[in-house]
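> run fold VWFA domain-containing protein
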Amino acid sequence: MSNHFKILFLFLTFFFTSQTQAVELCLSLDGSSSIIPADFQLQLEGVAASVENSSIIPQDSSVYISVVQFSDNATVEVGSTLIADQDTADILAAKIRNIKQVKGGTNIGAGITSCTSTFVTNDKQIIDVSTDGVSQVNPIPARQAAVLAGVDVVNAIGVGTGINEAQLSALVWPQPETPIPGPGFVVLVASFQEYTAAIEAKIKAEVKPDPEPGPGPEPGPDPQPNPSPNPEPSPSPSNGTQPIPTLNEWGLILLSLLMLTVTMRNKKFRNT
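> ok
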C-alpha cells in the first residue's frame, strides 16, 4: 500500500472512531468507619462484578473506569482504565476486590474532587457516589467545582438508614434529581446485601450510550388537492446551489474513493 493510501486509511479510521463518544465513569466508594468490613467487601464485590460483566460494561474501548475511596479524605485506588477486553476487565476487577478500607469519617466532597482528577478525556464524565452515611463536610461546593471542570453527571446510591436523602438529592447533577436512568439520580437500598444488584443496574444505565433523537411528530393527512383545469407543471425553485455534504457523508465519500482506487490498482496489476 502506497503512502497516500496509508494516510487516507488512517484518516478514515480516525474519522469514524472519533464519531463515538466514550464514557468515563468514576466510582466514589465510602470507606468510612460506619461501614463494617463485611459490608465494605460487599460494596467492592458489587463494583467488581459489574466491571467484569460485559453485559453491564461494554468491552469495546468505549468506557473508562476509575475508583476512588473516601473517608475523611479521598484516595484514587484505581486510575482511569479503558475497558478494551475481558482480560482488562478481569484485572481491574481484581484490583477493586483488593482495595483496603481506610475507615474514618465521611467526606463525600473529597471523593468527588478526587474523581474529577481521574478523567483523561473530554468525553462524557460521570461520578457515581456510594455511601451509607451523611457527609460531615458540605459536598455541594465540590460538586459545583466538578461541574465547572467538565463533569457531566453525578449520581448517588444511598445504603441503609443512616443516609440523608435530601443531601443526596441536592448532590446529584443535573438538578433537579431525576429517576434512574437519569441523569442525576439517586438509588436507595436497605442494606449492602442489596447493593450488588443496585450498583449493576446503576452502572448499566450510566454507561449506556445516549439515545438517538426520536422521530419528529407524525405528519398529518395529505391535504386534498384542489382540482384545476389543465394544470401546468411548475419547475422547482432553485438558487443553483447544492447542499454541502455533512462530515459523515464526506467520510463515506472518501471511503468509497479509497475502495474504488484499490480495486482499479488490483485490476491494473492483474493485467500486467
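Strands lie at 23-30, 63-70, 74-82, 124-131, 153-159, 186-189.
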